[in-house]
Amino acid sequence: MTGHAVVIVGGGPTGLMLAGELALAGVDVVIVERRASQDLVGSRAGGLHSRTIEVLDQRGIADRFLAEGQVAQVAGFAGTRLDISDFPTRHNYGLGLWQNHIERILAGWVGELAVQIRRGREVTGIAQDDTGVDVQLSDGESLRTEYLVGCDGGRSLIRKAAGIEFPGWDPTTSSLIAQVEMAEEPVLGIHHNAFGIHSFGRLEYEIRDGQVVYKDGGPVGVMVTEEHVGPAGEPTLHDLSEALIAACGTDYGVHSPTWISRFTDMTRQAAAYRDRRILLAGDAAHVHAPDGGQGLNIGVQDAVNLGWKLAQVVNRTSAESLLDTYHAERHPVAARVLRNTMASVALRRPDDRTKAAGEVIAELLSMEEPRKRFAAMQSGLDVHYDVGEGHPLLGRRMPDLDLVTPGGPLRVFALLHNGRPVLLNLGEPGGLDITPWADRVQLIDAKYSGTWELPALGAVAAPAAVLIRPDGYVAWVGDLTRLGLGDALTTWFGPPIAA
After folding, report:
1. pLDDT, average across residues 55-79
2. Can you give the residue ranges of the FAD-binding domain (predicted)?
3. Does domain 402-493 have CATH number 3.40.50.720?
């Protein structure tokens, strides 16, 4: 039996991001992935929201994605585009980039961190005890791990085997999404009719002079709403042909599918993100309609919230109770996404009364305050964790400020590339002493002369010091008295080391 500190089941964006986070902290981690090759990745998701790009920037890899994607204003609600170009972030946009490219780039980063991916294997059983989890694989191998994380999608075997409930709502609508060849050329773009929304787009493209140029011929990405909610199980080419004929009057001579998948507006969320030594992240913890393109994004952000906490527990830096904050912080974030996607689905039903309601919502979202509120939510920039009362920065994302340090100019996000927490001292140099935590927390003396801005909140008072967690959220804000700093350091990064 092979032993690892952490086994991640599922090598999609969530699992890959989590593996990278753990590897940065020196944790022995392995990914078990049922797909035999990265080439079998589909293009189910089509982009990254602003906060996810920031998260990647915090690890120094955002440029890899920006070099291949198309910058655009992609945040939206119920069909209304929400511009975030005036938001105080370096990445005041979304990024159009198919999931297969997102996974390929993440897999490359994880490979640089020497993470092992066991491909072409499925988990067939798990058994949890007080010290770890035994994991049985389809090839007969057994793994022993301290912690097991299910990143294995909405039908998660890990969630089911752990007995974690998955309450929610059954589907009311379904769509097929596929990568196929077509004998006839469809009209590319997004279309609406009595059935719902349909779209066709070329998947092969190149960047020329900063613009996406789609190649003629080759595979087509198809999304078509079905007349009735489709059955459980894997859809077939026949199912796709029938759906296209019903919705468009022709199937365009569809053939040679690379993959076909069905998604619905089924809306469910795990009752608990953790059962002792088993944890869930991404679609294994929450499923919802794809409205707003939020699923992949909140999954990656789940991983970044969980990764450093799990690493500290595995490395015996923090008590196991730190893992309780993962559910406490991320469950409400996904619950809000579930609520909003349900509302969005309701607003795109093709009857006249729903159309009237949608027009009213669109009118409201054209106003400044509602637009900023919903845009901050959809882009992930307004996430707020409950870490205590006080300064408005507490529990919110740390702005990527341009700092002046003794070593020269530096961005805040550059300080987070190694996944370690930072105590940023903006007051008198040498005024803070964190020697008992010096092995875990970086202390940086710096100056900043600009205004602090938060999306949807506006300007905030500049603090004298800020404690920044590895996921980029603020755990403590201090003035010259430094009250509560020791408690915050202990809560998030473990007890002090005795002199």
Report:
1. 87
2. 5-341
3. no
